[in-house]
Every structure is written in C-alpha cells, then in structure tokens.
Amino acid sequence: MIKLVATDLDDTLLNHEWKISSRNINAIRQAVENGVKVTLATGRMAISTRKYARELGLDVPIITYHGALIEQGLSGEVLYRKVVPTDLASDIVENLLKRAVHTHIFIKDRVFTQKTNKYSDFYCKMAGVQVEEKDILKVLEKEPEGLEKILCIGEESALKQTAEELREIYKDRLHFTSSKPYFFDMVDKDVNKGTALKALSEQYGILPHEIMAIGDSINDTEMITFAGLGVAVENAHPNIKKIATHITASNNQDGVARAIEKLVLNREG
Q1: Per residue in 46-84, pLDDT tens?
Q2: Among 51, 161, 193, 256, which residue's CB has the most CB atoms within a 10 Å radius?
Q3: Phi and psi of 8, rounded to 5°?
C-alpha cells in the first residue's frame, strides 16, 4: 500500500506548457482524499514551485532545489535549508565567469546572472520568475551563509565538457546533477531528492516500500532508487527508465495520473 507519492515537476507532472492537466490534478486530489501524502520534488526554486503546490492544495513539505530547500506547501514556511558555502560558491562562480559559461545563482527566492541573454529569457518564461542582472560575485559577498544552487545553461556539448572539468575540480565538495540536457546544476554535496524524500518519509513513519516516486531526468535518480515504486514517464531519460520499476505514459499524456490511478488507487485503464 502506497502512503507517500513524490513527483517531479518539469517533463513529469507538468505538460509542455508547464501546466498541470485536469486529470493529473484530479488523481492527486483523490489520492490525498484517500489518505495518501503527495509531495513535489523538483530542482526548481521554491518561489517557482509554490504556485503548483497551492494549485493542488498540498499542505505537506515540498522539496525544492533538488532538496536544498524544503518548505511547507501552503504556508511557505522554511523547514530545511542546506547551502553551498559562500567561499566555495564564489570560487565556482569565478571559475565559470572565466570560462564564459552562462551561470545563474539562486539565493532563497531570487535568481541572479551576470548578463541576461536568451538563456535567462528562457528560464524566466519556464520558471515564471525574474532573473536579475547583477555582479554575481558581489551578490555572494553579501551572503554570509551561501546559496542553494548554481545552474549553468548552454549547448549540451559545451556543457558536457565544462561539467567534466568541474566534477574533477570539485568532486568531493558538490553534488552535480541535471534536469535537462542544456542545464547543469551544482548543490551541496549532501543534497539530492532521495535524501530529502528519505527524511520526509522518516518524519511520517513511512517505509521505502510504501513510497512511489515519479520522474524523468537525472536529478530524479536518487529518489526513484530510494522509493519502493520508482516510476519513469515515457519521455524519461534512458538511464531513468533503466532504474525504474514501472514506466507510465508521458508528461503530455497524464503519466502521473495514470501511475496514481493504477498503482495507488488500484484502478485499471
């Protein structure tokens, strides 16, 4: 019996217009009405996730920034925050600026970039937030604690080389992940969706075999392997399909709803 469902947002719960379909909404609400806890687990920033949690009425801890920030779904109260320390973040940002890699830094509900361009414009449209053009090293100087996430955006081939080099330099100090081929994310070394989902399940006394996690991309790896039922949408990355125990329909074909209906609500069809 599934007691907790965690679903990714982009390319999983959200369709190509970054919206939640009525079937997905209804399935989630029915699961909640049946006593199942449903949460969101995303690489998005909290401010970009809140609207979806509120649309669904999810008054549970919501996992954002890959697990670096967890907040209560309806109130927005911060329950957990794990940052990349300022000195390390500054070193990484300086390295990226020298490489001329388009970089976003995320601090709580704000996102900054050195120079806005087509990549930041796309991010604004996708996430529904304003990317602020600032001297990002100076922004970091004013943050004694650190930041939630560093994101590089660019062509897949160029990002792959940058990612390989950064992994070698910072291999034991960061967690590296990706939600899209043209995104490369860096968070604290102890942060990932699986760790966050484990903490949440322990809070509720829910065992791994009572959890279903649904996702599509590399940043969903840890939570899909942690959950007893790891579900990949049809449009998922091949590596996610390999580790999933079930494959559901794509994000544009109500894959989350179909998984909940079949595996949680025990309906066929």
Answers
A1: 999 999 999 999 999 999 999 999 999 999 999 999 999
A2: 256
A3: -70, 165
pTM: 0.95
> What is the C-alpha to C-alpha distance for residues 69 and 148, in angstroms, rounded to an integer?
7
What amino acid positions are annotated as catalytic residues? 8
- What are the φ/ψ torsions at residue 63 (nearest 5 degrees)? -90, 120
Give CA angle at 177 (176, 183), nearest 5°: 115
Residue 7, SS3?
A: strand
- Distance (Å) of CA 32 to CA 38, 39, 64, 119, 188: 7, 10, 20, 37, 32
Q: What is the pLDDT of residues 167-207, one digit of tens each?
A: 999 989 999 998 888 999 999 999 999 999 999 999 999 99
Q: pLDDT digits over 93-148, tens only?
A: 999 999 999 999 999 999 999 999 999 999 999 999 999 999 999 999 999 999 99
Using CA atoms, how far apart are residues 220 and 242, in angstroms rounded to an integer? 12
- How far is the C-alpha of 45 from the C-alpha of 181, rounded, in Å? 18
Reading the block at residue 167, the tokens are 């992994």
List, as one string, the DSSP characters of 36-61.
-EEEEB-SS-HHHHHHHHHHHT--SE
